Fold Natural cytotoxicity triggering receptor 1.
Amino acid sequence: MTSTFTALLCLGALCRTPASDSLTEILSKPIIWAKPNFMIPKGRPVKILCQGIPEATEYQLYFEGRLSAWQSPRQPGIRNIVSFPISAMTLLTAGQYRCIYRSGELWSNPSDPLDLVVTEMYDTPTLSVHPRPEVSSGDNVTFYCRLETATNMFFLLKEGRSSRPQPRYGNTQVGFPVGPVSTAHRGTYRCFGSYNNHAWSFPSEPVKLLVTEDAGDTSLAPTEHTSFSDSWDPHLLTTNTEVQQDPALWNHTAQNLLRMGLAFLVLVVLGYLLTEGWNRASSQEHRRRFRTQ
């Protein structure tokens, strides 16, 4: 019976069991993300967004496996998105979130986990890069993050990247080896200290890594050892600014212009030589005819 139908969902410690096995369709999982970012300074607001199929009529948000909030979309349609606002980020709101949605009598699979982090909870660490911040493509570098007050975990992030932060366990200092580096590793890095995955320190001062490109270097992808998160300010580094500031790209442009200029000069010289040859041949033919007359 429709009135007695309940959805099947196992999310952490929470499970719902259907009263009937006649419905076997499973809805696709929704998409979940945080705005402005998954790293929020304590006391700042954040929104958790969840998007399902256009036919979704209800959303539920789960925090650490327990139902936290629910609501219906205001304007169902192609962009079927609901927002779950958090007025002030604290230790109590930092953790892992998932969401689900309902369409008709069916509930979706749970979304991928969203790990919401509160920052500015501890002292500021220091970040340095060795052997130096300016290296050649193919070299290896190590970022060292140090926190005077003992902790148990550190995170390294690169501005503008879209993946998870790179963690290391340690007491007061850890090293993050990166390499062999390529031009894709250029950028600004910061690190955080943490006592758990969801409560981080203030960010370190930024450290810029400059990688000069060697001739014959065609590798533009980071190695599997470097996996970084979204930037705390994703607008600081965009594709356009990378292109404008990449000296290797400017060098290639200058070389192409030089080649085009040389090719044009060669064509001009060849045209001049052909014209001169034709003029001389015409003059000789004219003199020959004049003598025969």
About this structure: The CA atoms of residues 4 and 13 lie 23 Å apart. The helical segments are 239-245, 247-292. The longest helix spans residues 247-292. The first strand starts at residue 9 and ends at 11.
